[in-house]
Design a protein that fits this description.
- By secondary structure, this protein is α/β, with parallel strands linked by helices.
- It is built from 15 helices and 20 strands.
- A hairpin with a 2-residue loop joins strand 1 and strand 2.
- The chain is globular, with a radius of gyration of 21 Å.
- The two termini are about 30 Å apart.
Length: about 425
């Protein structure tokens, strides 16, 4: 018997599995990587040697105002470490610069004050100007241009009311944008709801290149990359992290160049050779990404990549906020996976419904795989209505899966599905 801790909410749940069933344990090499410097030293090293730009303090010199774009409560961005350093560097270059921290929510709900304190620390919340982006406030948006897909790019008008823009983010594999970080601070980060919806249209999501670890030819990434050519981002700091949410890499400077270098680093360590088994157990890496079912397809897609034909996927996610997005929950309750998928695929890009993309991806998964959701927070009767099978523990889920696939079923465990890129 082997015991494997699976990330869940702010801790772990233990999986107990017989050795003869366990065929593969897939983890990212990010966990084994030992960085040459400590967390703060990595950041200072990146800021001291920016890629494709002047140093941040030099850019800030002579500027009157700055918008510093950061991640929201759904992301594990280590802003308690990064933000104080960025603020210090900006003020080293210009002690009087007027800085506004913009929380890039995309289409997510507003970040609460308590969440801000958890993300940034009380000192920053009490002493800095913080604005929460609201994608649904049309009066706050300004039209910029048309993107390659034909999508109209509209972003928060504050981006054109300041003298400089700085973004921070972290890089991890992303299930349809290729990688998180970089350009995502702008689109979807501070873009209008209409822009984000069209960028995430059913047609774009259905593209084979809209996949984990893929940038070249990815229509969603292409729109995002074009957007930052039209928005004056002066400086970017992106970090890479391990499962303990510790910084193991930092990349600063030009938003595209620094991000791509960081993506190369993550890609070199996150890859795992594709394996196929009857059952796959995975997660979203725990809090904050496992707060709701809306985010769960991220880890599920990694599980599906290793599930054999009609294999069972066990997804461990607290879903302490239930379904998450209202539209997502409504769509997932509207019928069978095929009915849901058919409805979504008929929606033209300019009529895209917020959150339909995760319903599209999850419905497509459910067409070929049984999915067991391990949650101790989300009502199990509601889980059933959404076409998933509920369980309270990984062990209970595994017993259910054995009932579907047989006691001698083979099993792959991917403790953090978001951190792994499955490659052929």
């Amino acid at each position: 018997m082997k015991t494997i801790p699976i990330p869940y909410h702010k801790g772990t749940l233990d999986l107990h599995i017989e050795q003869e069933n366990l065929k593969h344990l897939l983890t990212s090499s990010l966990e084994e990587y030992i960085p040459p410097l400590g967390e703060e030293e990595l950041i200072y090293e990146a800021l001291e040697n920016p890629i494709g730009t002047q140093k941040l303090s030099e850019i800030a010199s002579g500027k009157k105002s700055c918008m510093l774009v950061t991640s929201d409560h759904t992301r594990a961005m280590p802003s308690k470490t990064t933000l104080p350093i960025l603020l210090k560097e900006l003020r080293n270059g210009n002690p009087n610069i007027d800085i506004t921290i913009m929380i890039a929510t995309g289409l997510h709900r507003p970040t609460t004050r308590d969440e801000m304190i958890n993300m940034f620390g009380e000192h920053i919340v009490n002493n800095e100007k913080i604005v929460v982006h609201d994608a649904f406030k049309d009066d706050d948006m300004v039209f910029v241009c048309k993107l390659p897909s034909g999508t109209e790019l509209a972003i928060n008008k504050m981006a054109f009311e300041v003298d400089m823009i700085v973004t921070e983010g972290f890089i991890e594999p992303h299930f349809f944008a290729g990688f998180s970080g970089g350009r995502k601070s702008i689109l979807p980060g501070i873009s209008s709801a209409k822009t984000v919806n069209q960028n995430h249209s059913a047609l774009a999501i259905d593209n084979v290149k809209a996949a984990t670890g893929v940038l070249a030819g990815n229509p969603i990434h292409d729109d995002m990359a074009y957007a930052i050519e039209k928005v004056p981002v002066d400086f970017c700091l992106n970090v890479a992290m391990n499962a303990q949410k510790k910084i193991i890499g930092a990349y600063a400077g030009d938003i595209m160049k620094a991000h791509l270098k960081g993506c190369d680093f993550v890609n070199s360590l996150a890859g795992a050779k594709r394996v196929t088994t009857d059952i796959v157990i995975t997660s979203n890496g725990g809090y904050p990404l496992d707060q709701n079912l809306y985010q769960a397809p991220k880890g599920m897609t990694t599980g599906v990549a290793c599930a054999g034909e009609d294999g069972v996927v066990i997804m461990v996610a607290s879903c302490c906020e239930g379904t998450g997005g209202e539209n997502f929950g409504t769509l997932m309750a509207e019928g069978t996976p095929q009915q849901i998928l058919d409805k979504i695929m008929e929606i033209p890009p300019d009529k895209t419904i917020s959150e339909q993309w995760c319903a599209q991806i999850l419905s497509k998964i459910l067409l070929s795989h049984k999915v067991i959701l391990v949650t101790q927070h989300f009502d199990h009767e509601q889980v059933k209505k959404l076409n998933l099978i509920p369980a309270y523990t990984p062990d209970e889920a595994l017993e259910i899966a054995y009932g579907l696939k047989g006691k001698d079923a083979t099993v792959t465990v991917i403790p953090d599905g978001v951190a792994v890129i499955v490659k052929d």
